[in-house]
Design brief:
The structure is a homodimer.
Chain A (H helix, E strand, L loop, with lengths): L10 H12 L4 E4 L2 E4 L9 E8 L16 E7 L5 H11 L5 E6 L2 H16 L4 E6 L19 H14 L4 H13 L1 E9 L17 E4 L10 E4 L3 H13 L13 E8 L5 H17 L3 E8 L8 E9 L4 H6 L2 E3 L2 E3 L29 H35 L4 H21 L4 H16 L1 H18 L7 H19 L9 H16 L4 H18 L12 H4 L7 H18 L5
Parallel strand pairs in A: 3-4, 3-5, 5-6, 10-11
Antiparallel strand pairs in A: 1-2, 2-4, 7-8, 7-12, 8-9, 10-12, 13-14
Helix pairs in contact in A: 2-3, 3-12, 4-5, 6-7, 9-10, 9-11, 9-17, 10-11, 10-12, 11-12, 12-13, 13-14, 14-15, 14-17, 15-17
GO biological process, one term (chains A, B): glycerol catabolic process
InterPro entries (chains A, B): DhaK_dom (IPR004006), DhaL_dom (IPR004007), DhaL_dom_sf (IPR036117), Dihydroxyacetone_Kinase (IPR050861)
GO molecular function (chains A, B): ATP binding; glycerone kinase activity
Chain lengths: ~575, ~575
Amino acid sequence: MTRLFNDPAAFADEALEGFVAAHRRWVRPAPGGVVRAAARVPGQVAVVIGGGSGHYPAFSGLVGQGLAHGAAVGNVFASPSARQVRQVARAAEAGGGVLLTFGNYAGDVLHFGQAAEQLRADGVNVRVLPVTDDVSSAAPEEAHKRRGVAGDLVVFKVAGAAAERGLPLDEVTRLAALANDRTRSFGVALGGCTLPGAGEPLFTVEPGRLALGLGIHGEPGMGERDVPSADETARLLVDTLLAELPAGVEAPAGQRAAVILNGLGAVKYEELFVVYRQVSRLLAAAGVEVVDPEVGELVTSFDMAGVSLTLCWLTDELEPLWTAPADAPAYRKGAVTAPVATGDEPSTAPVDTTDDTPLVADEDGRRAARRALAALAAVRATVDAHADELGRIDAVAGDGDHGIGMRRGSHAAHEAAADAVARGAGAATTLDLAAAAWADRAGGTSGALWGVILGSVGSALGDTGRPTPATVASGVTAASTGVMRLGKAEVGDKTMVDALVPFADTLTRAVAAGAPLADAWDAAATAAEAAAAGTAELLPRMGRARPHAEKSLGTPDAGAHSLALITRAIQQTLATKEVD
Amino acid sequence: MTRLFNDPAAFADEALEGFVAAHRRWVRPAPGGVVRAAARVPGQVAVVIGGGSGHYPAFSGLVGQGLAHGAAVGNVFASPSARQVRQVARAAEAGGGVLLTFGNYAGDVLHFGQAAEQLRADGVNVRVLPVTDDVSSAAPEEAHKRRGVAGDLVVFKVAGAAAERGLPLDEVTRLAALANDRTRSFGVALGGCTLPGAGEPLFTVEPGRLALGLGIHGEPGMGERDVPSADETARLLVDTLLAELPAGVEAPAGQRAAVILNGLGAVKYEELFVVYRQVSRLLAAAGVEVVDPEVGELVTSFDMAGVSLTLCWLTDELEPLWTAPADAPAYRKGAVTAPVATGDEPSTAPVDTTDDTPLVADEDGRRAARRALAALAAVRATVDAHADELGRIDAVAGDGDHGIGMRRGSHAAHEAAADAVARGAGAATTLDLAAAAWADRAGGTSGALWGVILGSVGSALGDTGRPTPATVASGVTAASTGVMRLGKAEVGDKTMVDALVPFADTLTRAVAAGAPLADAWDAAATAAEAAAAGTAELLPRMGRARPHAEKSLGTPDAGAHSLALITRAIQQTLATKEVD
C-alpha cells in the first residue's frame, strides 16, 4: 500500500515538486508538468509525453536528452488536462513542431487531442500518437483500441532519438508509429495497489492467483490462474508475445528485438532477474536476438505486484534509435554530449490562456447565468454526497478515480462560475469558464466530457436574451453529440453516452410537445436513470471484446451513473422557485 | 512478499544468472559473483564489493566503470564465502591491488577478512574497509560497530572514482575511509519482507506503526511510533542526521552534502519524491547545499517497506569523486569514456584452490577420519531436523537465514568429508576439506565460524596416529579461541561463544580428570545446553547498546542453540560403538 503522504489530494503535486528537486540536472518545472533543463535546440521536434501520476518513471522520469522534451503530469491515475498538455508543449517546442505521444487511455486521448487542436490554433505544428502495445486489451484486428503500457518507453525512445537527430516532424512521427506498430506487451498481476490515503486497495488479486492481462489501473484482463513458478511465468509471457507477430515478421527466428521486462511495483529486482533468466533462454531458443534489454521498473502502478514483457521487433531503422544514447532521470544509456546552449531557456511562465473578451451579457443572460450557477452548486453537492460510491463503482472496471475527478471538476466549475457571475457574466461565458475549469482541474476522461457538456449548453444559452426550453434542449443535444464524437462511443458501449443520449432525446421530445422545462427535465432525468441502470446488465466479455463492452461487471458504468445523479440534482433546482 | 521464484534454494543463483543476461554490456560472471565486462586497466586498483543477495542494486548492480570492479554475491541475506570473495578479487585485480569494501555485518567481516588473508598469500596487495553508516545500530563512540546500509553507495562511489583516476591503493583506501567517516544514514520501516518461498514474513512491523532504525534484515532498531505524515517522516530523518555531525563539521550551515533518499522496496518512487520534497526544504533551511542527490532504490530488502536518508558531508577531495561519471547496471551518471581495451579480459575460470598435497594418513588417522565423518553425518541430521526452528529463532534478532545456512554448510561438509574418507584421507585433511566446504557453501557468519571449528579440531587430530581425548579437547579449545578471535565476541555477548567456551572448558577439565571421551563430551554438551539457554535471559537493549547484547529477546541466540544441538548429536555418535 501507499503509506507516505501528507494530504492525499496534494500527493501528485508534491511528488512532482520532490521529483524536480531531486533532478534539477535534467528537468525544470513547467506549468502542467516538466520540460528538459537543457536549453532548447532551435528547429528540433519536441516529443511531449504524459499521463497520470503513480506510474513512475512514466512519465516525468523519461524527460531528458535522447528521450522526451517534456511531460504533462496529471493527478494520480488521471490524465493531465488539455491545458496542461498545451502549456508543457508550448514550453518544450522549439520551432520544429510537437509530437504528442502517450498511452491509449480515453482520458489521455481526449485531453491530448484537445491540446493538439489548441496548439494548432496557436500556430504550432502537431502530430498525435497514442501507444497501443497491450495485447490483452483488444483483439489484433482492433489493435488501435489497445492500451499503452511499458511499450510507451520504446515509442518515446525511438521518437526522442529521431528528434535528437534533427529529423522533421513527419519523419519523427513515422518512426515512432513504426515502433508502436512493431511493439507488443503482455502483463500478469499478483496483487493490486492502494492509492495514497485510500482505506482499501483500488483493486486486488486473490492471494495465490495470477491475473492475466490485468491493466495497470486494474482494468479487467483475460482471466486468472494459480500463481506459476518464475520459469512458467516467463514461458507464459514469451509464448503470448510470440503468438502475435506484427505484420512483416513471419517467424521469430532471425529477428532482432528490443526487450523490456517491467516490474509493476511490488515485484522486486531479484524476482525480475529470475524471470528474465528464462525469458532470455526462451527467446534465444526461438532464434530471437535480444538488443539492449531493460529489466526493471519502467511503468509502475504504486505497489501493484505484477510483471510485463514487451518486445519491439526491430528494423534497421529502429535499432539505432533504440540503442542511441539517452540521459533522463530514470533512463540513461551510453554517453550523451551536452547540448549546445542557445540562451533560449524554456519559459516557465504559463502560456496566457485567459479570455479577456469584454463581457456582453444583458439582464436575461445574467439571470440565466445565476440559474446555471445554482445548478452547478447542486451538481457539486450531489457529487460530494456520492463521491465514494462513484469511486467504488469505477474501481470495478476502471481506475477508481471517477469520484475524485468529479469532485475536483465540479468544485472548480462552481468556483469559476461564481467568479463569472460576480463579474456580471452571461450564461455562455459563465458555463464556458466553468467548463474549462472542470476539464483542467479534473483531468481524466470525465473531466474532458463534462467540459464538453457545460460548454455545449453554454453556447446554446448565449450571454444575452432569455433562454427557452428549446434552447436548453438544443444545448443538451449538442452536448450529447459532442460527447459521442470526443469519447468515440455509441449507445450500447456501456458508457456515459448510454444515459446522455436518452436524456437528450427525452428532453427534446418533451419540450417539443410543449412541456415546461422542469417537467421535461424530470422525464429526461428518469430516462437517464433507467439507462444508467441498464449499463450494468451486460455480462463481462473478458479480454478480446471491445474495451467499452468489457467494462460492465454487474455495476453500472460510473460515468453513466454520475450523469443520472447530476441530471436529477439539476432537476430539483429547476423544480424550485426560480433563483434570482 | 516475494512471489516469483522456482526452487527457493536456487533463487540467488538464478537471479544472478538473469542479472548477467540482462547486463552483458556492463558485467560478466566470475566464479562467486560478477566483474566488469570491460577489459581490466593494468595497474588500476580493483574495488571489490559484495554481500548477500536480496538487496539489489547492492551489490552486483554497482559494478561498472567509475564504480566497483567486481562484486561477490552471496545467497539470500547471507554473506558470500571467503572463497567467493577471493575468486572475484582475483578476476578483478589488475596489478594495482584490491580494496575489499562491504557493509559491516559479522558474516561479511569474517569472509572478506579471510579472503584478504588468502589474497595476501596469493601475493595480492589488499586493504579492507567495512562501511559503517547506520547511526541507529551503535552509539557514536562505537561507530566502528555500526552496520552499513545505503552509505555503501557513497563509499563504493568514492573508491571507484579514485581508482578510475589511477590513484594507488593506499590513497584509494584513504579516500574511501574518509567518505565512510563522513557518511551517516538513518532509516525507518513500515513493513517487513518475505524471503522467496518462505511461508511467512521474515520480520514485520505492525500496521500503522513506524519502526525507527530497523535494520535491512529486520535487526532491532531504536523503538516505534505511529506512522507519521511524509513531511514528519522527512523531519525525523533530517533531524536525526543533523544531530550527529562527523568530526570536523561544526554546523550544517555552509556545508555541502551528497544525499541519498533510499527506498527499501515497497515504498515507491512517488512516495519517495513526496518525502524528498520536504527533505530538500529542511536541508536548505539548515544551510546545507545538496550535491547530486539520489532518490530511488539503492539498497533494498525485497518487499520491505521503508525509507532511509544518507548524508555524506563532502570535502573538496570527496565532492569530485561523488560527482564523477559512472556507468553500472543500476547507477549511471555523466558521460564515461569507453576504457582502452587491453586484450586482457578477466578470466572466468575459477582460481584453483584445491589442495593437491599427497595424502599422508596412516590407519589410525583414517579411522579417526571415519569417526569424524560419522560425527558430521549426525551433525547434518540434527541440523536438518531443527532447520526451521533455527530459522525462527534467528529471525527474532538476526536475518533468519541461520537454518538455511547451517543446512547448506553441514551437507556440504559431510559430502566433502565423505569424498576425503573415500580417498583415504586422515582426520586433519578430512576435517579441513569439510571446513572449507562448510564455509564456502553456507556463507554468512555461522559458515565462517563452523569452518574455524572444524579446521581447528582437524588440525589437533592430525592425519596420523590415534587421537587421544586430550587431543580432541585441545582441538575444541583451539576452536573456541579461534571463534572468539574471528567473531570478535566474548562470553556474555549472547553469541555462540557463550556456549562454546563452557563446552571447551568442561571438556578439557573432564578429560584432564581422566574421564573417557564420551563421558567428558556428555558433560560438556550439558554445559553448552545450559549456556545456550542462558543466552535468552538478557532483556533487549534497543538501539544504543552493543550490537551483540541487543540480540536477545527471550529466545536463545541461534548460533549458541545450534552449537548445543550439534554437540549433543555428536555425543550420541561417541556413545555408540566405535565406527570402523
